[in-house]
């Protein structure tokens, strides 16, 4: 996917670009800046990490086992798991806010496909933080305080590894914090890009 992203930027003739990535998109952006630094002038990475800690390694292994055994979770249980992984306690405890997400996740359960299984391998499997020390572009890393998929301490590690990295943590936000707290997230992205040379 890194090569695909590089090819897209080159085919559009728009390099260097400002890039924003969330979760898997952030992993791709990080690796793009390692292998093709000339394509990126600045980046915002949300809900990211540069390594797997023990809990995330266990979660990844468990998810791979679930996909590999072919078990399909009942739609309501799948929705439950996705809600717990995606949102903050604030959203989960707000009957109005969570009702829409319950309806959406229940209506469109995750289907196990080879592509979905491959997504598990897109996250850093080894400690990539040393490689990120060579990324020269300015980067804002946004962590979401209640994110259990990519917890803020792992995002802060990425920012700390980057020579021109900054870190911002958004409260009351889970893995999908950009949906939960769009105003502060969008404002932070715009402020950051306005502060760096294009």
From TrEMBL:
InterPro entries: AB_hydrolase, AB_hydrolase_1, AB_hydrolase_fold. One of its GO terms (molecular function) is peroxidase activity. Keywords: Oxidoreductase, Peroxidase. Pfam families: Abhydrolase_6 (PF12697). The keyword Oxidoreductase applies. It comes from the Bacteria. This is Putative non-heme bromoperoxidase BpoC. Residues 4-188 form the AB hydrolase-1 domain.
């Amino acid at each position: 996917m890194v090569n695909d992203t590089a090819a897209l930027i080159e085919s559009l003739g728009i390099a260097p670009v400002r890039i924003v990535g969330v979760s898997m998109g952030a992993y791709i952006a990080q690796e793009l800046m390692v292998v093709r630094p000339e394509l990126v002038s600045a980046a915002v990475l949300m809900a990211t990490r540069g390594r797997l800690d023990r809990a995330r390694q266990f979660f990844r292994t468990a998810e791979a086992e679930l996909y590999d055994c072919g078990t399909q979770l009942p739609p309501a249980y799948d929705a439950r798991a996705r809600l717990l992984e995606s949102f903050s306690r604030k959203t989960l405890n707000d009957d109005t806010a969570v009702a829409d997400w319950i309806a959406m996740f229940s209506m469109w359960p995750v289907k196990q496909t080879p592509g979905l299984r491959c997504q598990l391998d897109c996250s850093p499997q080894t400690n990539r933080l040393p490689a990120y020390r060579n990324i020269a572009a300015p980067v804002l890393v946004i962590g979401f305080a209640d994110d259990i998929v990519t917890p803020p301490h792992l995002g802060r590690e990425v920012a700390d590894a980057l020579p021109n990295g900054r870190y911002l943590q958004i409260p009351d936000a889970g893995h999908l914090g950009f949906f939960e707290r769009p105003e502060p997230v969008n404002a932070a992205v715009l402020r950051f890009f306005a502060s760096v040379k294009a």
